[in-house]
UniProtKB/TrEMBL annotation:
PANTHER family in alphabetical order: CITRATE LYASE SUBUNIT BETA, LYASE BETA SUBUNIT, PUTATIVE (AFU_ORTHOLOGUE AFUA_4G13030)-RELATED
Keyword Lyase attributed: yes
HpcH/HpaI aldolase/citrate lyase domain: residues covered: 5-217
Keywords attached to this entry: Lyase, Magnesium, Metal-binding
Organism of derivation: Amycolatopsis ultiminotia
MF GO annotations: lyase activity
The protein, known as: CoA ester lyase
């Protein structure tokens, strides 16, 4: 499952904010029962999220449950069981191993109405989780990976923006090796810093990331633009496809074109909506 470029997180204990998030033009919405909710508000948050799920008709709607091995996660699943099938699945924080994913998958199997329908989006936000990224990505039901930049940066004592490029590259490799879309980067917490949001999003995309967690609807447009193919990328991709469609192995500027270059060109045009994922022209 492709989560798209914008993954909007919303605290589950604010009914009005939940309502606005569900109506926002984000590619994916995540209703939060974990870090975005104070411990004393989690009972209220579960009730709000259950009501929202029961009434929701939105694709790519997830709930972030609490971490594995906690009583809070057990309470989350007990509350969500009747309605979780209205959503796409769960976001799992602090994922540390493939075994954790398997245990959550077993819980989902006992809840869902259609076998295999509910998906898991692990958040890799610890050093242990980063070392286990390959097995986490390859586990059953995993739809995509999220990099939890704030927790991981705190553990490593580095900047979330400038100190985690090695982690981003590692997670992107793990995701693609497992056949997943590029991972989702963590949030840019400075809501009024549009320049920083765009700059760090472009850097993240250059490392193989598909999109980003968004904390406020005002960040949706800048993030969507940053992770979209740039106009010059699209123009170059068109040239590659046109040249190879005509049987040429070289572009007009003399650049050699081989199969990986052609595959990348088709992927760029598919992302831009100009061709389907199989390389055929879009309707």
């Amino acid at each position: 499952m492709d989560l798209g470029r914008t993954v909007l997180f919303c605290p589950g204990d604010h009914p009005r904010r939940v309502e606005r998030a569900l109506a926002a033009p984000a590619a994916t919405v995540v209703l939060d029962l974990e870090d975005g909710v104070a411990p004393e508000a989690r009972v209220q948050a579960r009730a709000t999220v259950v009501r929202a799920l029961a009434a929701a008709h939105r694709p790519r709607l997830f709930v972030r449950v609490n971490a594995s091995g906690t009583a809070e996660q057990s309470a989350d699943f007990a509350a969500l069981a009747p309605v979780l099938g209205h959503g796409a699945g769960v976001v799992l924080p602090k994922a540390g191993s493939g075994a954790e994913i398997t245990a959550v998958a077993e819980r989902l199997a006992g809840i869902e109405h259609t076998a295999g329908a509910l998906r898991i989006v692990p958040v890799v936000e610890t050093c242990a989780g980063l070392l286990a990224a390959a097995e986490i990505a390859a586990a059953d039901r995993v739809a995509a990976l999220i990099l939890g930049v704030l927790d991981l940066a705190a553990e490593l004592r580095v900047s979330p923006a400038a100190g985690l490029d090695h982690a981003r590259a590692h997670l992107a490799i793990a995701a693609r090796a497992a056949g997943l879309p590029g991972p989702i980067d963590g949030p840019h917490p400075a809501l009024d810093d549009d320049e920083g949001l765009t700059r760090t999003s472009l850097a993240s995309r250059a490392l193989g990331f598909r999109g980003r967690v968004v904390l406020h609807p005002r960040q949706l447009d800048p993030v969507d633009r940053a992770y979209a193919p740039a106009p010059e990328e699209i123009r170059h991709a068109r040239k590659v496809v046109e040249a190879t469609g005509a049987g040429s192995l070289r572009l007009p500027d003399g650049t050699f074109v081989d199969r990986p270059v052609v595959a990348r060109a088709h992927a760029v045009l598919a992302e831009a909506g100009e061709v389907a994922a199989d390389g055929h022209a879009s309707a």
